[in-house]
UniProtKB/TrEMBL annotation:
Official protein name in the record: Large ribosomal subunit protein uL1
GO biological process: regulation of translation; translation
Annotated NCBIfam families: rplA_bact
Signal peptide positions on this chain: none
PANTHER family linked: 54S RIBOSOMAL PROTEIN L1, MITOCHONDRIAL, LARGE RIBOSOMAL SUBUNIT PROTEIN UL1M
Superkingdom of source: Bacteria
Source species of the chain: Planifilum fulgidum
GO CC annotations on file: large ribosomal subunit
Entry-linked HAMAP family: Ribosomal_uL1_B (MF_01318_B)
Annotated family: Belongs to the universal ribosomal protein uL1 family.
Length: 232
């Protein structure tokens, strides 16, 4: 069992383990008990009622949080010609084709998100063993394989986050920083919850949103009432 520090234990005492907090109340508590001296990231974990072993019950996608995450992401775009120019004008940090693919193949990973035009995917696919394990492989489901590279870059810079259920059916996503206003964190949380509800697989049975927990990077989890998001 992991050992926690004194600050974490003091923060944990302020959380009622038996209570299901409303979203705003939970986030206010997370902000007030964040134990670290740096501006911690506020994260949420949704436990979904899905069978991840079944192909028709995968939950994956992306959503633009209205207030961003507090972190500016470095965007790499694989594109040629006019599409490369569009990506540069939209604010992409790195843009290229063969030379950039070669650089990544040699182990360079100084970026947070990868976007590619569809015509480049044949070559980008060769980077699967490098980008795949890092969760960086472009995917049409998350809007990162597209000819509209300008829109993709702008959305990522504006606060677009990807979500994907792990093997246990849990989705972990950052929704901001402890320094964010509670209203902004609450709106980000609700926007993400709405996206997950829309992404509910038709084959999923029973209660879909089984539990919701918010926490700061170094702080204890605070349970949120799933009914607050009108999930079924």
């Amino acid at each position: 069992m992991a050992k926690h520090g004194k600050r974490y234990l003091e923060a944990a005492k302020k959380v009622d383990r038996e209570k299901m907090y409303e979203p705003r109340e939970a986030l206010e508590l997370v902000k007030s008990i964040a134990p670290a001296k740096f501006d911690e990231t506020v994260e949420v974990a949704f436990r979904l009622g899905i069978d991840t072993k079944r192909a028709d019950q995968q939950v994956r996608g992306a959503v633009v949080l209205p207030h961003g995450t507090g972190k500016t992401k470095r965007v790499l775009v694989f594109a040629k010609g006019e599409k490369a120019k569009e990506a540069e004008q939209a604010g992409a940090d790195f843009v290229g084709d063969d030379d950039l693919i070669n650089k990544v193949s040699q182990g360079w990973l100084d970026f947070d998100v990868v976007v590619s035009t569809p015509d480049m995917m044949g070559q980008v696919g060769k980077l699967g063993r490098i980008l795949g394990p890092k969760g960086l492989m472009p995917n049409p489901k998350t809007g990162t394989v597209t000819f509209d590279v300008a829109k993709a870059v702008q959305e990522i810079k504006a606060g677009k986050v990807e979500y994907r259920a792990d093997k246990a059916g849990i989705v972990h996503v950052p929704i901001g920083k402890v320094s964010f206003d509670t209203d902004k964190l609450t709106e980000n949380l609700k926007t993400l919850a709405e996206a997950l509800i829309k992404a509910k697989p038709a084959a999923a049975k029973g209660t879909y949103m089984r539990s919701v927990t918010v926490s700061s990077t170094m702080g204890p989890g605070v349970r949120v009432n799933p009914a607050a998001f009108a999930s079924r």
